[in-house]
Structures are given as C-alpha cells and as structure tokens.
Specification:
Blueprint lengths: L6 E4 L2 E4 L1 E5 L2 E7 L7 E4 L1 E6 L1 E2 L2 E2 L5 H13 L2 E8 L4 H13 L8 E2 L2 E4 L21 H8 L4 E6 L6 H10 L3 E4 L6 H9 L4 E2 L15 H8 L4 E4 L8 H10 L4 E3 L12 E5 L2 E6 L2 E3 L12 H10 L4 H6 L3 H6 L16 E4 L5 E6 L2 E5 L1
Parallel strand pairs: 1-5, 6-9, 9-10, 9-11, 11-12, 12-13, 13-14, 14-15, 15-16
Antiparallel strand pairs: 1-2, 3-4, 5-20, 7-8, 17-18, 18-19, 20-21, 21-22
The site of zinc ion has 5 residues, from loops.
C-alpha cells in the first residue's frame, strides 16, 4: 500500500518521496512518484498520559482503553505509557492488573507498560497528587506492584527516605527511572542520575525551584548530557521563554509529554485525576485550590507549540518520537525505517494530523 505522501521524516531528515507499507512494516521510503502533499512521520510516543477522551487510566476498563487508544490515534500517537498518579497501593495494583489483562492489540495507539508517577514522591512537591497516598521509597511495595503486570517506568523523588536505594533497585530490574515531584538538591539529583536514573519528569514543575547556588533537580538535569528532559509544552506549565530555554539547553534530549488527563479532547468542565476533582477552564486543568492538575494538551499540539517558539520541524517531531523511544530504549519505536513497524502519522502543511497508522493498520483518517 502506498500512502501517497510528498515526503517522510527519516532519521531526523526530510526525505522527498512516497512511503509504502506491506504486512504492517515499512516497505519503501523516498519512492517516486511522490504525492503532492503530506509528510509521513513516525507515530508519536507519549511516555506520560493519565487519560484522554473521558477515560482515566487509573480506573479504566478494557472498553475505556480501547476508546482512549482511538482518541490518541487521532492526535498521531501510536504508542503510550498509561500513567498512574499516587494512589492507594490496592488501586494502583488494580490498574496494573487491568493493563495485564488487555487482550490483543487496541484499536488505536498501542499501550506500553505503565508509568507509575508516585507514590514515592516528595510531600513538598506533590502537585495534584493526593498527599495522603504518598509513601517512603520501598523496594517491597515497588516489587509487589511490578509483579502484578507490566510496569516500565517510575517517577520518584530521590531525596526521600530510601529514594536512592530504590533508584538502584529499579534500574537493576531494567525499569526506566525518572526523577520528579521532588525537593532534590543538586547533590541528591546527581547521586540519582549517577545510579542510572535517566530523566526528569515535567521539568520545572513540581520540583525545587532553580536558584544560582541551588540549581536543584532541574538545573542538574539540564546540565547533564546523559539525562532526558520531559516537558509539558502547553504554555500553561511553562512560559514560552522557558520552552525556548529548554530548546537551547536540552536540544535533542527534550521529550514532549502530554501529561493529559481524561478531560483532554473534551471541553471545559469537572473531571477526575485519580481521586482528585479537577476543573478545566480555558485549557487549564486545576484543583479547587488552583494547583495545576495535568494538562489537556495533545502531543500533536505540543509539537506545533514547540515549532511556534522556533524549533525546527525535525527537532520538534523528534521530541515526540525518536527521543522518547531512546529514553525507553525501544529501537522499534519512534523511527521510520525500512522493515520497521509501520507506526506512522501523516501531517499536513499546518502540522495537523490527517492520518495515523498503527502497525500498518489505519487507526485514523481525517
Ligand atoms: Zn506530575
């Protein structure tokens, strides 16, 4: 099957020519004749999404996952990590069990192992997480949760009791550890990155504030070439100038995350994030006290936002495709390559998603 596109984004470079797909795999790139419009890019990989289209993954059932996967495909996402905020251990456990029972491929974006955001985070920077559910870092609790189903990624605060030991433990188990919701000073952050933590979670949000002689987690993450920097580029969580700063400091280590909640794709109203009530108004999701509670941005909008502050197309798309795939050590995701999985989004001239293929299957067409 030919996609009829004018070009594709291959290894970070625009390659003129059409793309073909056979049996779920990319079978041709740079083919002539090219179509007149359309850019085929790797499907987006969202490593932090709590929900979408009325579905909160923490309480979703199989039908909910199916609905959410279709909604994500409409925004060009082809793979996502359902993300669970701090919750009672039984509730997180049930959500992980549900994930383990999903049978066969979802109709839209494919689900990746879970991202546990908490409960091992700082009471000083819990953000919208319910502080009642926070725990000291515990390898026993973490192992018990991981035993229930697929968990691939944990956001934790390294400076809390047991934090560094938990970083080492999870890294040794092959999980991706990201640091966030944290009051870490530079030495705490450095110690955790030296022990294998790979990323910072929604940089500058829910962490010790950067200061000249106290750069904290954000300062250390930005200064280290081995650390991935995840960011919510909705211009609510980060000012435009801050995003420009990230472009120059993080560059090809920058990872766009949606951190979307169930309200994403819907309108203003009252929604939930775990057991917290969230009010969405004018693109901002907040608790009653005004605390930001996730976002309602879709990844494709975040890519356009990044371009709007001066990022090149290649870097902006890379921040939602090849870089998160590298963060996850998933060489099968985030790139268009001959013989690779045909996870593809097609963008028009305004960088709007017009079509999404997941494993070569048409998951969305405008
Ligand atoms: Zn968070």
């Amino acid at each position: 099957m030919r996609l009829g596109v004018a070009a594709s984004l291959v290894e970070g470079t625009v390659l003129p020519g059409d793309v073909s797909v056979e049996e779920g795999l990319v079978s041709g790139l740079g083919l002539s004749p090219a179509g007149s419009t359309g850019l085929a890019i790797p499907g987006f990989v969202d490593v932090q999404v709590n929900g979408v289209a009325g579905v909160d993954f923490l309480s979703a059932d199989t039908a909910g996952y199916a609905r959410a996967s279709e909604a994500l495909a409409r925004t060009g996402v082809t793979a996502f990590q359902p993300t669970f905020v701090s919750s009672p251990v039984e509730v997180a456990g049930e959500a992980i069990v549900t994930l383990s029972t999903l049978d066969g491929p979802l109709p839209g974006a494919q689900v990746l192992p879970a991202h546990l955001e908490g409960p091992f985070i700082s009471p000083l920077h819990h953000g919208a997480h319910n502080p009642r559910h926070l725990l000291a870092a515990s390898t026993e609790v973490a192992d018990a949760l991981c035993a229930l189903g697929p968990v691939g990624y944990v956001t934790l605060a390294p400076e809390i009791e047991g934090g560094l030991a938990l970083v080492e433990h999870l890294v040794a188990r092959g999980l991706v550890v990201s640091l966030g919701h944290s009051d870490a000073r530079a030495d705490d952050a450095t110690a955790a990155f030296d022990r294998g933590a790979r990323a910072v979670t929604h940089v500058f949000n829910a962490m010790r504030a950067w200061a000249p002689r106290d750069p904290g987690l954000a300062g250390v993450a930005l200064s280290r070439p081995d650390v991935f920097v995840t960011a919510i580029v909705d211009f609510v969580h980060l000012a435009r100038e801050t995003v420009r700063l990230l472009l120059t400091t993080a560059g090809d280590r920058l990872v766009l995350i949606s951190d979307a909640i169930e309200a994403a794709g819907l309108g203003d109203g009252t929604y939930h994030l775990g057991d917290r009530e969230v009010v969405v108004r004018a693109g901002e999701a907040r608790l009653a006290d005004g605390t930001l509670a996730g976002s309602v941005v879709a990844i494709d909008q975040a890519v356009r936002n990044l371009v709007s502050v001066g990022a090149g197309l290649e870097l902006a798309v890379g921040a939602a495709t090849r870089v998160p795939a590298r963060l996850l050590r998933r060489s099968d995701l985030g790139e268009l390559r001959m013989g690779g999985r045909a996870d593809i989004a097609v963008l028009d001239g305004s960088l709007e998603v017009t079509r999404t293929l997941v494993g070569g299957r048409e998951a969305y067409a405008a």
